[in-house]
Specification:
47% helix; seven-stranded parallel β-sheet; 18 strands; 754 residues
Length: 754
């Protein structure tokens, strides 16, 4: 066996293997099929790149991410290991050169990265099946699973592709992913037809990471919390938001507070996204505010904070996104600033991403409305999603997009993008009908599976809610979710690095006093048993509080003896008691948009055998204390405002300016933000209290001229917002021109001083 450590140092410039890498490489070199479940930051790619040095023949890497392919190919070529990629970014000429070089079988090309869609090419398959292959690596292997939200139909061809290659080659297969649950893992094994694979699950515990959750619902308080953290940290940040609207909200707040930040969303062009990503990598910005479009191959060592301003979509998404921090192994922080109300956004997307059978059939009939049954049309439909949503009666274009994906998945239609064959006034993906029109009852769609996918999405939403909003060790929850048994064994009862464990440790120093009597737990168990699997949590809370809710009265629940039995408790406390019983498996909640509450066998037993609740009382009371304490800990206390004598704030600033104080000095003296003082300066100038000579101390004519030119040539003298001006200025690489300069320029133009 070759000295792998020596190869690691000479070929890859690394001093030692990370946890689990050596064992995985040994498995590959022993020609065993191998499944690797390792986080994004674990450098999984080394486990299929290093074996080439020993095995020598071509390594094929299947990856769905164009950006990741390019990044890895560039890195390998920098190491003098020739790597090539074939995907939609490569033109036919370059593609032919690559295929010709591969067909020579001289191994001048060491690694070939391909998109899964390449398996649709007969020409590629004819050439590649004659080439000697040492290893096939399937990256992002979760894309093959039917349970993954971004399932790629082209991955389904992998099994046939591998069988075809094995007719002339004997090689192992390595499948890698950072985010697979147990269900997805089983699916990967089945769909790739792996033979007794060696399975490695490692690296999900990051020792120097702190996981912090702050339940904040008000926008102003969330933004203040972001600002508070930012002021204390000099490093780079990523702030993830659930929508473009929230991205703009956070970005505008940061800019208004003079923070060097930029945005990154799918709305931007590919070139602009690449420019902004490079700017962030070069530390031109301290903060990037983004949707989940950002960060696929970020490898920036000084990212210390990853903040989720809204609820992450799933634990898989969360763990991928937070993996952008900690790349150098130093202390880093994953912070979630969200509230339980954020789950409504997720539910909206789930409902619109998984249309009902009736909605799909209605849209199918709309697409085929101009054709008779069994008419073979190959028709093209050149309409935007918005237009189709309006014409078909479907609620919105998001749901239209979801229906089209389902129909495309079952080969009923196909989306195309071809500028040469479509009318000049239409730009976008047009639809081609691939099948003849059928009776809706005969459409070959697995409706049960579609329902199962929706249920799976609600299950994932429930898991992220449990991780973030239920009192338990967050690190252990994640390790359990990803079935990382090895790391779980190494964690103590208190991990010491998540907010729950840190706060629990502080609570241990205090005496645990019963927040509610044991009888309250028993009463709730009896109530749930009586109405077993009929209602969701909020209904039980209203019932026990004695609410006059219309539904409760319609169902005559106000006549029950337990109606209003806990009217002296707050809704938050009753809900916390129910959650505490769920945490110890006395109660269980179903998944879905409207989860139902039911009692477990343990719960039924506890009603008659009270020693069970007595034995668990301390743990139940601890749960309540932590749950209620952490919810209120970071709420602002309302302090009575002191009455202050009313002053003219502009006049106060003016007096200090006349004493030759700097703007920073005035800001400190008046305890006002710098941006407020700058606004005073602009207003004082407009009101003729400050002269042109006064304000030119804060800017320069060259900066003002650039702003004036933008307003004149780009905006035709129409100014409604400052941000478009700032963006156009930064596109001209004038990043030193501030919003203050822009405001001064506008004021001078209005007064005809510029």
């Amino acid at each position: 066996m070759n000295d792998l450590e020596k190869i690691l140092q000479l070929k890859f410039g690394l001093s030692s293997f990370r946890d689990g890498q050596r064992e995985i490489i040994d498995s590959v070199l022993n020609k065993k099929d191998t499944l690797v479940f390792m986080p994004t930051w674990g450098w999984k790619s080394l486990t299929y790149q290093l074996p080439w040095v020993v095995l020598e023949w071509l390594v094929i890497v299947v990856s769905p991410l164009i950006s990741l392919m390019k990044d890895q190919v560039d890195k390998l070529n920098n190491l003098w290991l020739r790597a090539e990629l074939i995907n939609s970014t490569i033109d036919n000429y370059d593609k032919q050169i690559i295929l010709n070089d591969i067909s020579k079988n001289d191994w001048s090309i060491k690694f070939l990265y391909i998109a899964p869609e390449r398996l649709n090419s007969d020409e590629f398959l004819r050439i590649i099946e004659r080439v000697k292959i040492s290893l096939v690596a399937i990256d992002e292997a979760h894309c093959i699973s039917q349970w993954w939200h971004d399932f790629r139909p082209s991955y389904m061809k992998l099994k046939g592709f591998l069988e075809r290659l094995k007719l002339n080659n004997d090689f192992p297969i390595i499948a890698l992913t950072a985010t697979a649950t147990q269900k997805v893992r089983a699916d990967i094994t089945l769909r790739l037809w792996l033979v007794n694979p060696a399975i490695f699950t490692t690296g999900f515990d990051r020792k120097n990471i702190s996981l912090i959750v702050r339940e904040i619902s008000k926008k102003e308080e969330k933004l203040e919390k972001v600002s508070e953290i930012l002021e204390k940290t000099p490093w780079s940040w990523i702030i993830y938001c659930s929508s473009r609207k929230n991205v703009k909200e956070v970005y505008d707040y940061l800019i208004w507070n003079w923070v060097s930040a930029w945005i990154y969303t799918w709305e931007m062009t590919w070139d602009n996204r690449e420019i902004e990503q490079n700017n962030f990598m070069d530390s031109n910005y301290k903060v990037i505010v983004a949707t989940n479009a950002f960060g696929m191959w970020i490898d920036k060592s000084d990212i210390r904070f990853v903040i989720h301003y809204n609820l992450p979509w799933s634990i898989e998404n969360y763990y991928q996104e937070v993996g952008r921090a900690w790349r150098d192994g130093k202390n880093s922080y994953w912070v979630v600033i969200a509230s339980f109300a954020d789950t409504k956004i997720q539910e909206f997307f789930i409902e619109n991403s998984y249309p009902t059978k009736q909605e799909i059939v209605d849209f199918y009939n709309y697409l085929y409305r101009d054709f008779s049954t069994w008419e073979w049309a190959w028709a093209k439909i050149l309409k935007t999603y918005f237009v189709m949503a309006s014409e078909s009666g479907i609620v919105n274009d998001l749901k239209v997009w979801a229906i089209i994906r389902v129909l495309e998945k079952y080969n009923i239609i196909k989306r195309w993008l071809d500028d040469f064959e479509t009318p000049s006034d239409f730009r976008g993906r047009w639809i081609m009908l691939l099948q003849a029109k059928q009776n809706p009852a005969s459409i070959k769609i697995d409706w049960a599976h579609q329902e199962a996918l929706k249920a799976e999405s609600y299950y994932k939403l429930e898991q992220i809610k449990k991780l973030l909003f239920y009192p338990s060790c967050r690190k252990k929850f994640i390790l359990n979710y990803f079935a990382d048994e090895e790391d779980l064994k190494k964690i103590w009862d208190n991990c010491g690095s998540c907010d729950f464990c840190i706060e629990k440790k502080n609570l241990w120093k205090q005496e645990i006093v019963d927040i509610v009597k044991i009888s309250v737990f028993g009463l709730i168990l009896e109530t749930v048993k009586k109405f077993d699997t009929k209602f969701w949590i909020q209904t039980f809370v209203k019932f026990l509080r004695g609410s006059n809710d219309k539904k409760l009265l319609e169902w005559n629940m106000d006549n029950d003896q337990n109606y209003g039995a806990l009217s002296d408790l707050t809704p938050e406390l009753i809900q916390a008691v129910i959650e505490a019983l769920m945490s110890l498996e006395y109660l269980y909640k179903s998944d879905g948009k409207f989860p139902l509450l039911w009692i477990t066998e343990t719960g039924r037993l506890a009603i008659t055998k009270d020693f069970l609740l007595k034995n668990d009382n301390e743990e139940l009371q601890t749960y309540l204390k932590i749950r209620l304490w952490t919810k209120s800990l970071y709420k602002k206390e309302s302090k009575p405002k002191e009455k202050k004598e009313k002053v003219d704030t502009y006049e106060e600033t003016y007096k200090l300016l006349k004493l030759w104080n700097s703007l920073d000095d005035i800001s400190k003296l008046r305890e006002l933000k710098s941006i407020t003082i700058e606004s005073h300066v602009v207003s004082l100038y407009i009101d003729w209290k400050l002269w042109l000579s006064d304000i030119m101390k804060y800017t320069s004519f060259s900066k003002l001229k650039i702003v004036k030119d933008i307003i004149n040539k780009e905006l035709n003298w129409v100014v409604s917002e400052l941000k478009p001006i700032k963006e156009k200025i930064e596109n001209l690489w004038n990043k030193d021109i501030t919003y203050f300069d822009i405001k001064l320029a506008i004021a001078m133009i209005e007064k005809k001083d510029l």
